Amino acid sequence: MRTILAVAATLMTLAQSGIGTGTGKPLRINVMDVEGGQATLIVSPSNESILVDAGWPGFNGRDADRIAAAAKELGISRIDYLVVTHYHTDHVGGVPQLVAKVPVGTFVDHGDTVEHTEQGDGLYKAYLPVRDKAKHLLVKPGDTIPIKGLDVRVVSAAGEVLKTPLPGGGQPNALCASAPMRDPDPSENARSVGIVVSLGAFRFVDFGDLTWNKEHDLVCPNNVIGPVDLYLTTHHGLNQSNNPALVQALHPRVAIMNNGTKKGGSPEAWQTVHDSPGLLDLWQIHIAEAGGKDHNVDETFVANLNETTSFGITVSAQRDGSFTVTNPRTGQSKPYPKHN
User: Fold this and answer.
1) In the chain, what are the domains?
2) Are residues 18 and 295 in contact, defined by beta-carbon separation less than 8 angstroms?
3) What is the per-residue pLDDT across 264-283, written as a single tens digit (0 to 9) for each?
């Protein structure tokens, strides 16, 4: 009954606000719960799909099962493009199990791994034979992923970042002068493939696990991206990422943190995102143990209160920039208006 009432209330709100009416098929996004990894499924109005990362390996195929279930719910039978942001276990480890359940048309990545340890080489060697059975797109900043009706732009890859401003970007970033730099990150995190997904006026960003200095380079001295509507917090909301110079420059209206109970959601990063000027709401995949009572959002905006459930957070966006975020655990949806 609670879910029915919540949906009815949402539909009434949408009708009153004009959100989601008469603007065509939506862009749909499911930020899935893969327990502190990443698996974000994006389905265009033309029903083409992008999956960003495939979660963890093992756990009896847990993450592959969750991705397959989300794909079925969104009405797709294949992943057109699988973007592997970088070669860490919680992002690429689940690929072999996933392709056994859902076919993938094209793999997108930044090229060879830079982590030549037993684990790093092992992850990459497990990925390669799977990738080699499909098409492969090696990307660099400025490249696009061809999805009908969407603009999907690569803004970071292999340690390089975009230098030419996107439409709406290019403004000087006053925060750069005071933004501290950190020691260089030689890991795969700093080589993450980051993308900006645009449907008309609506803009969504996912930078994988891009770390502090590369985030700085992406928006300093000028913010080449411009403002966005939806920000998937970088690196699960860890404080190695979510540089204030980036977060505030993006000026997101809404943020989603793809954290786990015991991973991500660090108080420093949470506070940076929470305090970003213009932010209307922050949503979380899990209550973060590291955050305590002062650095977690209200439970209404949390998909999972513990590790016994596996809800994601879903988004439906329109060309006019309006979008709706839904917490399936509660059935609550919240609409955000179109651009003026």
Assistant:
1) 23-331 (3.60.15.10)
2) no
3) 999 999 999 999 999 999 99
